[in-house]
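Quick start: read one record
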Amino acid sequence: MVNEFYHLCFAVQDIQRATEDLTRVLGVRWSPIRTGQLGEWEYSIVFSVEGPPFFEVIQGSAGSPWDATDGSRFDHIGYWSSDITTDKSRLEARGAPIDFDSCPYGRSFTYHRIDSIGARVELVDLAVQEGFRKTWSPGGAPMPALDLDRP
């Protein structure tokens, strides 16, 4: 099986402008924008209707993992993980250190930095995929987890 990412994420200064631009330029259609909070940080988030792979656009407050005060940017490639504890250790051992771990905040994702591409890889616990599909992709098929044993 090929390792399939399920989304590409952009951290932006203005989520409304970014989604309107992606719609105008590429024809991307969006689910409703949602707001949330992680620790002290507030954020707005949206996923494209089409996918996988999905477009994700997120606008976070200053100091957050999605802080774009220095400019909007490509932020990460997202993968499902069937064992996030093992997979995050394996990515670290392969030279992708943890840039942010949401687990202490009661969430189930980690960001791993790959400096040579100027972006991160996100691992998301497969256990939350059903909730993702209900929220962002009603009727969508299950998506595979990253297989780090694959040569």
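The longest strand covers residues 73-81.
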